[in-house]
Specification:
This protein is of the alpha+beta class and about 100 residues long. The protein has one domain: 2-Layer Sandwich (Alpha-Beta Plaits). The protein is built from three helices and four strands; from the N terminus they run E-H-E-E-H-E-H. Strand 2 and strand 3 form a beta hairpin. The radius of gyration is 14 Å and the shape is elongated.
């Protein structure tokens, strides 16, 4: 399992960009992958790097289709090979679940 934290938003469309971010969230929600959205980013569980990067690419394409002229993408990836890590297991380790 790979866990990715994705923040994607246009930097060219003024101060309120929620309508653009909502389009990216639709892509993530329709992917069928487990995810949790926070105020600044969405954490996604993917079976492999290819699946995670596919979602990032599709979110980027959704932003382009909305007319965004400049897009900022932050992607942080945690790929543990020694054990199966999930959003839930990481939160349990912190005592948050």
């Amino acid at each position: 399992m790979i866990i990715g934290e994705l923040a994607i938003f246009p930097t060219s469309e003024g101060v309120s960009v929620s309508k653009y971010v909502k389009e990216a969230l639709k892509v993530i929600e329709s992917s069928g992958l487990h995810h949790e959205t926070g105020g600044m980013a969405t954490v996604i569980e993917a079976p492999d790097m290819e699946a995670l990067l596919k979602i990032v690419q599709e979110c980027h394409e959704a932003m382009v289709k909305t007319g965004a002229r400049r897009i900022h993408i932050d992607l942080r990836v945690d790929h543990r090979l020694d054990t199966e890590a999930t959003i839930e297991s990481k939160l349990k380790a912190l005592g948050k679940r």
